Amino acid sequence: MPARQLLQALMRARTLTLFALVSAGLCMVNAFKAPSYGAGRLLPLSDEITQPELASLMGELQRLTHKMALSADAGNAELVNFYMHESLEQMKKIQTEVPDYEGQPVALLMERMGQPAYATMQEAVNAKDKQQMLAALDAVVQSCNACHVATLHPFIRITRGTEVNPFNQSFRP
Ligand code: HEC
After folding, report:
1. Ligand 1: residues within 6 Å at CB?
2. Which of 44, 51, 68 is nearest to 106 (CA)?
3. Theoretical Cys-Cys bridge with 121: which of 60, 77, 104, 136, CB 3.0 to 4.6 Å?
């Protein structure tokens, strides 16, 4: 190999070694920086966990309301009665666990806007009347949506949802 080519090959090898060393150095700097960065991000998260998530409590209420709707649509007063009481318990849970949310008086609004609709449902259940149960159901759904409007969440719109049964459960009497 002529001397010039040998020199060029040697220089290329040196450049590669230098590049490898610099990369390794950067990786080490990042490795040392990582723990303090991770810890800094974890702290605010643990602060937020103290209040239960209203959305997941609402999700459970939605599930119960949906099953109550399917039971009413099937004319099953016994099952409507069951989901009505489960819903009222879930509402109480929400009132105790999240009385206020982002400046909205959730517990108060639950009492004023949410719960009254269930009194009508109780009457319908006692009468075992399908049409009465469906009318009461509409009043419940309306109360959900009225409260979503009042608490600045008008984009969360609940419906009867009785067109199809998405559950592996029969709602027939
Ligand atoms: C106190 C007023 C109030 C009442 C009454 C109320 N909601 Fe809500 N709901 C809220 C608020 C506020 C949010 C938003 C929570 C958030 O921002 O995390 C919400 C969120 C939701 C969500 C979104 C969470 C999800 O899992 O998709 C659903 C669904 C929901 N509500 C269903 C219902 C149903 C069903 C009813 C009636 C049986 C109802 N809500 C009654 C205030 C209410």
Report:
1. 54-55, 58-59, 61-62, 65, 101, 104, 106, 109-110, 113-114, 140, 144, 147-148, 151, 153, 156, 158
2. 51
3. 136
Q: Which of 106, 95, 89, 97 is nearest to 153 (CA)?
A: 106
Q: For residue 136, what are its two tokens?
A: 């009461």
Spatial separation of the C-alpha atoms in residues 83 and 80, rounded to whole Å: 5
Q: What's the predicted TM-score (pTM) here?
A: 0.77
| Residue of minimum CA distance from atom 14 in ligand 1 | 55
**Inter-residue contact 120 to 136 (CB < 8 Å):** yes
Residues 4-34: tens digit of each pLDDT: 676 676 567 665 555 555 555 554 555 555 4
